[in-house]
Design a protein that fits this description.
Largest interface: A-B, 26 and 27 residues
Number of strands of chain B: 11
Helix content of chain A: under 10%
Oligomer: heterodimer
Strand content of chain A: over 45%
Mean pLDDT of chain A: 93
Structural class of chain A: mainly beta
Mean pLDDT of chain B: 93
Strand content of chain B: over 45%
Helix content of chain B: under 10%
Shape of chain B: globular
Low-confidence stretches of chain A: none
Number of helices of chain B: 0
Largest sheet of chain B: 7 strands, mixed
Order of helices and strands of chain A: EEEEEEEEEEE
Low-confidence stretches of chain B: none
């Protein structure tokens, strides 16, 4: 059974702080990793993808991947109230590169 | 560009009734997926189709059937709905090893 584990939270940070979200995965065959943001009642939307070890930065978001430790993280700098959402970590593997999702971390950014 | 379109958006069924959820994508993607999302459980894969003409079971296939009608369309059928199938259903599509695009979701209640 392929598993992706996330801290379920909830996680609260003050506006302007750094939010740190973590994820571990069990399938060493996973090749691609994604962070999705999901607002209440909406569908998931991709915010970051990462395919190789190290850091990947995109604006206020930084994804980190460590395949040896089977660990993925997302840092959100200068957090804004609009970042308040559930963040889903996903790992891609298998013949159709199907995604296995974690249960999500609910983030609240306090004004 | 509509992306991934799901119908219907909302549905209430009585136990034992059947229905088909429709999904279509206009991005020429090869792979399509059906997920269900329950509170606190992230998204779980029901069925997927790596390419036109192929379908495979995911993590939670019991009680469901699928049809990959053509490259664009992937339908999910509940033959005899049960209250345990009350959930939010998402269809998604992807080009191999890249991000998955999600439809807007179908909120299904079985009473």
């Amino acid at each position: 059974q392929k598993e992706v584990e996330q801290n379920s939270g909830p996680l609260s940070v003050p506006e302007g702080a750094i939010a740190s979200l973590n994820c571990t995965y069990s399938d060493r065959g996973s090749q691609s990793f994604f962070w999705y943001r999901q607002y209440s009642g909406k569908s998931p939307e991709l915010i970051m993808s990462i395919y190789s070890n190290g850091d990947k930065e995109d604006g206020r978001f930084t994804a980190q991947l460590n395949k040896a430790s089977q660990y993925v993280s997302l840092l959100i700098r200068d957090s804004q109230p609009s970042d308040s959402a559930t963040y889903l970590c996903a790992a891609s593997s298998g013949s159709a590169r199907q995604l296995t999702f974690g249960s999500g971390t609910q983030l609240t950014v306090l004004p | 560009n509509a992306g991934v379109t799901q119908t219907p958006k909302f549905q209430v069924l009585k136990t034992g009734q059947s229905m088909t959820l429709q999904c279509a994508q206009d991005m020429n993607h090869n792979s399509m997926y059906w997920y269900r999302q329950d509170p606190g459980m992230g998204l779980r894969l029901i069925y997927y189709s790596a390419s036109e003409g192929t379908t495979d079971k995911g993590e939670v296939p019991n009680g469901y059937n699928v049809s990959r009608l053509n490259k664009r369309e992937f339908s999910l059928r509940l033959e005899s709905a049960a209250p345990s199938q009350t959930s939010v259903y998402f269809c998604a599509s992807t080009v191999r090893n890249t991000e998955a695009f999600f439809g807007q979701g179908t909120r299904l209640t079985v009473v």
